[in-house]
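Quick review question:
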């Protein structure tokens, strides 16, 4: 019964946060709802017994991809001073979302159980290493699907570069490095050699 309650809790919050990702007007809020989606999806993977996929979802997508999204959002021309006005009215909503996430983590942790048979001593000679999720995913990912895996990495790289190029704004008062001017610079243009007599300084 508790597994069903935890499943429906994760699924409900996952669907609601997914809707808010595309319904939120503030892009920063949309990214935060996306992070909430990833956490709930990781909880569902834990319930399915795919703990490796759940941890990878949290570490890679929440720790890298979502931070990259926030980095791109911060490069957009958004008046954050206007968005910060009246932020206190959103504190109850943020506190509610935080409490829901904490309750889900507590429910997921309470649903774990320890199998006493797993702690029983076994014969190391006769023991056979089982094929767990991590080993099977690694074998499939780097053997049968190695080319799609590399292509997906290239697609993410191109998407990141495209997002930076599209959102980059050139300001006229910003000083930039010009490598061509540095390479074409001559020594006489930047260095002046003067012969100073002993005991006299240069004015």
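Suggested answer, residue by residue:
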């Amino acid at each position: 019964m508790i597994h069903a309650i935890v499943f429906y809790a994760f699924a409900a919050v996952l669907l609601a946060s997914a809707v808010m990702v595309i319904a939120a007007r503030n892009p920063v809020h949309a990214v935060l709802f996306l992070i909430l989606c990833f956490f709930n999806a990781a909880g569902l993977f834990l319930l399915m017994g795919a703990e490796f996929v759940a941890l990878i979802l949290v570490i890679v997508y929440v720790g890298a991809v979502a931070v990259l999204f926030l980095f791109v959002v911060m490069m957009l021309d958004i008046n954050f001073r206007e968005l910060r006005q009246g932020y206190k009215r959103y504190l109850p909503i943020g506190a509610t979302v935080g409490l829901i996430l904490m309750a889900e983590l507590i429910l997921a942790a309470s649903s774990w159980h320890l199998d006493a048979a797993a702690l029983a001593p076994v014969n190391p000679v006769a023991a056979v290493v089982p094929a767990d999720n991590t080993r099977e995913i690694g074998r499939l990912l780097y053997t049968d699907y190695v080319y799609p895996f590399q292509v997906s990495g290239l697609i993410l790289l191109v998407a990141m570069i495209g997002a930076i190029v599209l959102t980059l704004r050139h300001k006229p008062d910003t000083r930039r490095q010009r490598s061509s001017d540095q390479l074409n610079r001559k020594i006489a243009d930047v260095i002046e050699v003067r012969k100073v007599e002993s005991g006299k300084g240069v004015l």
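Why it works: The first helix runs from residue 2 to 23. DSSP finds nine helices and no strands in the chain.
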